[in-house]
Design goal:
heterodimer, A: 9 helices, B: mainly alpha, two-stranded antiparallel sheet
Chain lengths: 220, 489
């Protein structure tokens, strides 16, 4: 791969990564959100795969394949199953912040991401590091989704996007964390999503729905 | 000798495997208690030779210094009390139909996994592995919090998993940034996250990136330690968990998360000087104290009252860490151990009160001291420990923390912290005395104490008194830990 096409692919992947996050903010159909999350997983996996190909690093490419399987297929599949058993709840309920305002906030968060990541780029101005603001923007947008959505599944999506954003940051600035940490972290995320999926089921049986506004028994 | 470092992790894991095989039985529950004891014993044995410096095990994956030993002692002690009491507690839950066979089996597996994850967190040499272990505690405890499967328990579990996972995800981002900075000091990718390597290269870490990383790590591990701003899970999770799990979460998990923060602090202080994290810890510590004290004043639920008392203590510990002197760190570690044992006592006693009355409202549970000598005494002594009354150890630790704060020119922080502690003190005394001495309701149910819970309560009382009378060789250990963390004398 030439230097130019490597940079091009990397920037395309980072751009697609951020775009899927913005689309999640825009859409309210839970099914569509889960599909977008899967595409985000593909864009994320493209980063280590491209870097691995460029540097001839077989280990990094293996990590890329694992990321692809986990984040583009397994995790979205687990979530899709949680949505599928929820016939009357395929849409996000009336949002706390309307779509236009949400998109404006997303734009503001993206600008903020550029400001926050300046020291990182200053330390190592490589093509990969220059794409880090996109990953940070996804992290900020994910937090915004978690505080502004009211369905359990949407919060789980927000959590997974947050995690995707952190993984993307790791791949962009350091070509991934050491393998043992990567494996442990992936396993933790997988378990956390499994726990959230199981909890969604328990909550639906106990509350008759997963609107988190019903979670108000415990307060001071 | 390196094999010794594996014991605190593998012993609970073996107990978990056994429990997964045979289910909730006297045998598997007893083996879990033995596993907790072996965490304590191996911690003590490692501690015998720790003054000469850190030891490594399992290649370079594990590293034990005096802080690890201190935390192993805390995990082992509170773990033994809690797993011992679990036997009687869960059997009673089964009899009363609050849980079923499957719930009990799951409990039997998850508690030792939880212990193993905490042991790994304090023994890991790689701060990435330390992060994995802390996040693993969230996964392991999720279904322990939701053990009763009631609406309130599910609500608490959801908040716990979501808030802690988000908080701890920020700590991972901080870890990634620290890795990035460490790679740029010339460390190889295999060991750039190792604590010994980071300590050696700390002076060369890029300051701007390290600032960002340190802020994220403070927020992230602070979430698990019950510090502001991600503290909102704490009262819900502590109040809904089964009593032995509340004891473990409050007495051990919070301080294990805080120990991770102390490790990070020892690295960041070398890179940035002590000013940055001192400011951060003072802000989150004092805010945590403020929130805990104000919510304690209006509390009518005794398990939530105990939960906010944990927040109050973690806030004080954070303020002590901000002072950062040897005196402050050693006092903080004594505080953590004394708080762990005291909290285990009150939570285990509270569990029996909840089981008897089927309620956690302070107003429903009165006259305890007259109705059950053992539970009443245990609750009273635990409360006295938490209030910092002499002769118990938290009196000494709070005194030392005050002296350390005054010595570090943080008199204003000391003043603010003392004011908030006095408010919390008054609130705890009011709630506690009403429960212990208040007029007995006619027709109040009998307080039953299963044998294993009674034994754990007695052991807790003995330990609290003993630790109050003398910290013995432990005080030397705490001072070694402070020195090894780079605290100034």
């Amino acid at each position: 791969m030439t230097e130019g096409s490597y940079t091009g692919v990397l920037e395309l992947a980072a751009g697609a990564f951020l775009l899927t996050a913005v689309l999640v903010v825009w859409r309210r159909e839970l099914q569509a959100i889960v599909v977008l999350l899967a595409w985000q997983g593909v864009a994320l996996a493209a980063i280590p795969l491209t870097e691995g190909l460029q540097q001839g690093d077989a280990a990094l490419m293996t990590v890329g394949v694992v990321v692809l399987v986990l984040r583009a297929f397994v995790l979205p599949f687990l979530l899709a199953r949680a949505v599928g058993t929820e016939p009357c709840e395929r849409r996000e309920s009336t949002p706390l912040v309307n779509t236009t305002a949400s998109l404006l906030i997303t734009a503001a968060l993206t600008v903020l991401a550029y400001a926050v990541t300046r020291p990182i780029i200053a330390l190592d101005p490589s093509p990969a590091t220059r794409a880090v603001p996109a990953a940070f923007a996804v992290i900020l947008i994910a937090v915004f989704i978690m505080v502004s959505r009211r369905r359990a599944v949407s919060q789980a999506v927000g959590f997974m996007m947050l995690d995707n954003g952190i993984a993307a940051t790791a791949f962009l600035i350091t070509a991934g964390v050491p393998l043992i940490v990567e494996l442990g972290a992936s396993l933790d995320v997988l378990f956390a999503v499994l726990v959230l999926g199981l909890l969604t089921g328990h909550m639906r049986r106990a509350f008759g729905g997963t609107d988190l506004d019903q979670l108000r028994e415990l307060r001071d | 000798m390196d094999i010794l470092l594996l014991v605190p992790i593998l012993a609970p894991l073996a107990a978990a495997v056994l429990a997964a095989g045979v289910g909730w039985r006297r045998l598997s529950a007893t083996v879990t208690v033995l596993a907790a004891v072996s965490v304590l014993v191996s911690g003590a044995v490692i501690g015998l030779h720790i003054e000469s410096g850190a030891r490594f095990g399992a290649g370079h994956l594990l590293r034990a210094d005096a802080l690890s030993v201190t935390m192993l002692v805390v995990i082992g002690t509170v773990g033994t009390l809690a797993t011992w009491a679990s036997i009687g507690y869960i059997n009673a839950e089964l009899v009363h139909g609050h849980t079923d066979r499957r719930g009990a089996d799951l409990y039997g597996v998850l508690v030792p996994v939880f212990l193993a994850a905490m042991a790994l967190a304090v023994l890991a040499n790689n701060i990435g592995v330390m992060w994995v272990a802390i996040e693993a505690t969230t996964v392991a405890t999720a279904f322990l919090v939701g053990h009763r499967r009631t609406r309130a328990a599910l609500e608490a579990t959801w908040k716990y998993v979501v808030i802690c996972s988000v908080g701890i995800a920020l700590a991972f981002l901080g870890t990634v940034l620290l890795y990035f900075a460490s790679l740029h000091t010339g460390a190889s990718s295999g060991n750039a996250l190792d604590i010994d390597v980071l300590l050696n290269h700390a002076g060369q870490l890029d300051p701007a990136v390290t600032h960002l990383a340190a802020g994220l790590l403070l927020l992230g591990y602070g979430a698990k330690a019950g510090l502001v701003p991600f503290h909102t899970w704490l009262a819900d999770a502590h109040s809904q968990s089964p009593a032995p799990v509340s004891a473990l979460m409050s007495g051990v998990l919070l301080s294990v998360a805080f120990a991770s923060l102390l490790r990070v602090k020892s690295i960041v202080d070398l890179a940035l000087g002590t000013g940055f994290l001192r400011t951060g810890l003072l802000i989150v510590g004092l805010l945590t104290l403020l929130i805990a004290a104000s919510l304690l004043m209006v509390q009518t639920d005794f398990k939530r009252m105990l939960a906010y008392s944990s927040m109050e203590n973690m806030g004080l510990v954070a303020v002590a860490a901000a002072a950062g002197t040897e005196l402050a760190i050693a006092a903080l570690l004594l505080h953590v151990l004394a708080h762990g044992i005291g909290k285990a006592l009150v939570f285990l006693a509270a569990g029996q009160l909840q089981a008897a009355h089927d309620s956690t409202a302070i107003g429903d549970v009165t006259g305890v001291l007259a109705r059950s000598a053992l539970v009443g005494t245990a609750f009273a002594i635990g409360l006295a420990v938490l209030l910092g009354l002499p002769p118990f150890a938290m009196f000494a630790s709070e005194l030392s923390i005050s002296r350390a704060l005054a010595g570090a020119n943080l008199g204003w922080a000391l003043g603010a912290a003392l004011l908030l502690i006095v408010i919390a003190f008054a609130a705890l005394v009011r709630g506690g005395s009403r429960m212990l001495l208040g007029p007995e309701c006619p027709g109040a149910p009998a307080i039953v104490v299963p044998v294993s819970v009674g034994a754990a309560l007695l052991a807790g009382i003995v330990l609290s008194v003993a630790l109050g009378l003398t910290a013995g060789p432990l005080s030397q250990l705490f001072h070694t830990a402070a020195t090894q963390l780079g605290a100034t004398p």
